[in-house]
Each structure stands twice: as structure tokens, then as C-alpha cells.
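User: hey, got a sec? need Catalase folded
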Amino acid sequence: MTRPSETEATNKAKASEDTSERQESSGEETPPELTKLRYGEVEVHRGAGGETHQLSPAGEEPMTTQVGTPIADDQNTLTAGPRGPQLLEDFVMREKIFHFDHERIPERVVHARGFGARGTFETYESLADLTCADLFQRAGEVTEVFVRFSTVAGNKGSPDLARDVRGFAVKFYTKAGNWDLVGNNIPVFFIQDATKFPDLIHAAKPEPDRGFPQAQTAHDNFWDFISLMPEAMHMVMWIMSDRAIPRSLRFMEGFGVHSFRFVDASGRSSFVKFHWKPKYGLQSVVWDEAVKINGADPDFHRRDLWNAIASGDPPEWELGVQIFDDDFADRFEFDVLDATKLIPEEQVPVRPIGRMILDQNVENFFAETEQVAFCTQNVVPGIDFTNDPLLQGRNFSYLDTQLKRLGSPNFTFLPVNAPRCPFAHFQQDGHMAMQNPKGRANYEPNSWGAEGGPREDPSRGYRSFRASVSGDKRRIRPESFADHYSQARQFYRSQTEVEQAHIASAMIFELSKVDRVEIRERVVASVVNVDEELASRVAEGLGFARVPEAMPPAVPPRDDLDESPALSIVRNGPKRFHGRRVGVLVDQGSDANMLAALVRAANDEGAEVALVGPTRGGVEDSEGNTLEIAEKLEGGPSVLFDAIALVLSEAGAKRMAMKPAARAFVSDAHNHCKFIAHDAAATELLDKAGLGPAVRDDGYCPLDEDASATTFIDACRELRHWKRKPA
Ligand code: HDE
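Assistant: Yep! Here you go:
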């Protein structure tokens, strides 16, 4: 064994002989006896003793400890002798491990899995006649925003395509303070009173004894709770619908859910409901696709959003408002304070008031997406709450939960949470106080004059809407909240046939996972009140001998509500293929002209083509060009694409027809009602996958000349060929 003193001496001697390497790398003294290794961009030098040294590029600041002490060696701890014990004195290693040990913070109790992006909101025109909210005063006003999308039930590591509500939380950094519009992609909620929220979430989350199932409502506890809470039935229709499995965060609506108030400068108020409408239309996937996407790419939604922003095709939404007054509220069939109800757009149209573009990905996921703290209580002058009991409860919960999660009342100083406008208050101290009051005064009133710190401003400060309130102090649910089924029925009946079939299948799937038969029966008994035909479909799917008697409703459901076409996704498709992806299956010898025509047609539409092939190593097309493969076939199933095309030589089609993954690629696309383009040779693959001429409907587009690529992309504007679905 070499003694350390000997090694050091030899190294010193060798280092003095060779200076060339030193000059090349950092200009600083190069550690002795080093072999250069490259890890990507990083140059690492390994010494004779096996130790490695990563040299900071010339002119750049070196890596330091948290307090700025430069670090010479981040690869090896300080030991007594090369194979000796580690020394407690090693502050570099201790600080590093200490910090690592404390990296995790509690995940959100709900909406743990989220994905954020930055952007801007632009006001279309002044809304001064409705609200004095500063961001709505001037046409063209641009306000910075941060948005976090989320699923609700799953933990941070759960898959993106869980059947669930999506959170749609927007923080507006306005000149008069932060306004948080903490909404969902569904305009109603399960419960009417905030005090039921812990029960709802306990029932939905993994069962407490066994800790599963994860990110699913398909289990006994959830449906047990639902079967005993008929007020949830409207929301249940929404989560069993395709709204709960969006194709992309970019293609879903957002809703403020509650009725809020706009208040103008004179104190006059109107009710307002907020809506986000995606520029590129609504789109969802089908359940079998969602299940497969979760396996193929559990990050499907976040990757999609990240890529859209990174590729310069930022998603966009219009903010719209439904404005109504007390008269309407009195006339409306339901209570506007009941969050299990919506106001159909056909009754109160949505007026667009601005647009939001998300054009910047975060720089650090933890700093922004994790640390962002939305609070429904964050409102600005001109925007106020109503007495919706769910909203009132939320105003307590969000502030409280941020303290638990972020560990200090000073979370508002974190860059993602701090207002962009000046702020001044006497809140002080506490963990991580980054900005304490300056000067002598930290209280008010005070008589310190100009040095006395911030003062109230009655002319610009927040004033609550002056509502008169009276009543007996009681725990009671208003009678006006008693109708639990009419809007559930209206929602179901406003769906297209395909969407109704999806709701029925989703209920059958979920209830089939429920072990206790009396829970299944109670749910179906409740569904009878929504729609008898739906109830009998579900009963049949569950193998019931008969449809159960209707659960006695608190008030009989109404049959006189008009259908609301705005509630259907299929009826509100974009009629465009912009922002979507075509997966093109290729192999050696694929036709170069056809591929070029497909890329042109897709790009003209604002869509993307991704080549799927046998290896990532690339294949040669018919003209000998090497094609870059985006997805290896086995890792790039057709569920990752909105439509597929098969461009194969005869030999290529023969090879593909032998591969189970290629056959699944086409048969899944068929079953998910996708448009399928194919050249003549590719029929061999289709035939082998059981998609012979008799099965190939007009959702199949033959690729026989260049123009057919455009015909195919035009067809894709329908997004799905729903006619293919058996009735
Ligand atoms: Fe939330 N909700 N919620 N919620 N919620 C949270 O706050 C709560 C409700 C929503 O991306 C928590 O920061 C109660 C409706 C979103 O960071 C918590 C009630 C709507 C997000 C909380 C509701 C929402 C949350 C957990 C019943 C749509 C994610 C972590 C009264 C309008 C925000 C956190 C983000 C998060 C409480 C119901 C939307 C515990 C008590 C209705 C989008 O405070």
C-alpha cells in the first residue's frame, strides 16, 4: 500500500513537470496527475488515486458552500488517510448532506401533482362600469400571471391521466396586489359546504388502512360517500365524463366555480362567474387511451405543455365573465350561492374580457411550481366574495395550508408569491423573515411622521362590498340548495351520444371496482334520479337483475331545463388540428415525397409530425436520406398521438406486420376513433392487425398522391372519427 505522504510527493513532482494541461483548462492550478474525462459538457479530471476534479471553466465563479466559500473538491470527503475514517470537520460534505436531508416539504393535501407556467394576461377593454379592479381598467393592460394546473386526488408522483378534476389556478400579479383565481376545469363542485371537504377528500384518497388505491376514485370509500351525498351527483356526472381525462392542459376550460362579486368605484356590485376558454378548443382522450398513456408516459400532460411552450406555440385562453344581478339571481332556478350548480351559458352568455398566454416555462420546478401558494382570499379592490359557504370555507383553508406546507408565514416573500407592485406592512419576524419593517416604527397609528412607515389609504384601499346581513345563528342548509339532480340531468342530456356512452362506461368501470354490492346499488338508485336510461345502462353493465328504485330525492328533479350545448366537449371542438401531433410509422425505404407532403400539410395547420420507427438510430427513406426517429415503436404507442399515418415500403410493411407493437399501434388508433392515413403498402399491416377493407371506414385516408396528405390533415380537424364507435 502506498503511504499518503509518498503519493502527495510524487504528485507534486509530476505536476511541476507538466504545465500545459493547466493552461488549457482553467488557468488555475490543475490538480496533479489528472486524466481528462468528459461527461457531456462537463470536464472531469481524475487523479491517480481515483479522485475526480471538475474544474470550473476559466473566468467563471467556482462552486461554493451556501455561505460562499469556494469548494476545491466536490467528489471526495475529507478523510484521515485515503482509506481512513471521515472527519467531522468536513463542513463541505456536512452542509451538503444536511441540506439534502431537508429538501422535501409536505406535498399539498390535495392537488399535490401540479405543473406550472408563466405568462401574461391582456385586458381587452375597460370594465370600469363593472369593477374598479385595476387590471380591468385599461384596454391593452398587460398583467403578469403564474398558472398551476393539477390533479386533485393523486400524490405528487401519480400519473397525469388519472380520471380526476384538474386544478386551474391563476395568480395575477396586478398593480393593486395579487389576485388568485383558484379554479378547476369543471364548473361545479361535489359539496355545498366547506365543512364536508375533509370527508370528501378522505373518501377519495387511498383508503386509510391499506394506503391504496392511488389517484383513483374507483373504490368503495369514494362511492360509499357519494351514495350518501346526493348533492355530489351533478359533479359526479362531470367526473365520469371525458372532462376528467383531458387530452392536454392546453385544451381544457377553466372555471372560477363560485359566484364572485365585481364592485365598481361607486360601490355598486354585480355577480360574476369566471370562465377560461382555450383558444385551440376542447379535447379529451377516451378512457382506454388514458389508461395506456399513464403507462407509456405518466408525464404526458406536463411534457405536452412544456413542449408547446418550448417550441414557441404557447397555449392561450380567453377569460370570460357571466355577469348577473340580484334580479337574475332571484329568478334563476337554483341558488347562485350553491357551488353544485352552474349558470348555463345559454342563459347568461360568457363575455370575453381578456386573453392569457402561457409562454414561459419555469426555471425551477420547486422554486415556482411547488412553492407557489394560491389563496382564495387574495383578492384586489373591485373583486369580492359572495356568501357561497364553500368559498367562505376556502378563504380559511388556503392560507392555513400554505403555512403548514411552506413552514413560515413569510412565504409571501418567495419570488413566485411576492407581489410585483410595491408592498409595505408591519408584519415582521418569524422563520425566514426576508423583509422586515425598516426604521423605528413597526406599529400604527404612530406619530413618527414621514418615518412612521406605511399608512392606510381609504381612497385606494380594499373595501368589502357593503352587503346587509341578518339572520339567526344556526347550522342549517338553505332550502334553495335542495335540488340535487336537475342539473345533473341537464348535463347528461346535453351530451352527444358518444359522450353519454362514455359516462355510462366510466360509471360501470368505477362501480365494478366497488366490492360492496349495497354501495353499487345505492349509487345506481341515485342515478335513476338523473336519468333512467343511464341508470339502466349502468345497472346492466354491473350485472344487476333489475334497476333499483330511485333514491328518494329531497325535491323532485325538474324535467323542464333546456339542453345546454356548451356543456359538451364534442360539440365544442376546435374544428382545427392546431397544436396536435401525428405519429407517422416509418421503416427503411419509406416514401420521401409522401413524408415531406405530410410534414408540410401538418405544419401548415400548426400541427406536428413525429416519426415512429424501429430504433432511434434513424432509418433511410426512399431517397437515401436518414430520417430522425422521435419514438422507438415500442416506446411510442399511438395513444401518444392525435392521429396516425403509415408510410411504409412493401418490405417495411411486411416487417411491421410481424411486430405486435406495430399491430397494437394501428388497432389502438382504430379503437380510439383516430384518423388513420396509410399508403398502399401499409394495408398489409392493417390487414394483419384485423383492420381489413371491411373495417376500414371513412376515417381512413389513403395516401396515394401528395394532395392526400392535405385531405388527411383536413379530416383530422374533427379530431376523432366518432362515427366509428359502435352505438
Ligand atoms: Fe381547493 N384546496 N379546496 N378547491 N384547490 C387546495 O390549498 C379547499 C375547491 C383548488 O395549484 C389546498 O394550496 C377546501 C374548489 C385548486 O397550488 C387547500 C375546499 C376549487 C388547488 C384547499 C376546496 C378548488 C386547491 C391544498 C372546499 C375550484 C390547487 C393545497 C371548500 C374552484 C392550487 C393548497 C395549487 C388546493 C382547500 C374546494 C380548487 C387544502 C377547504 C371548489 C386549483 O387549501
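Quick note: Residues 224 and 518 are 9 Å apart (CA to CA). Let me know if you need anything else on Catalase.
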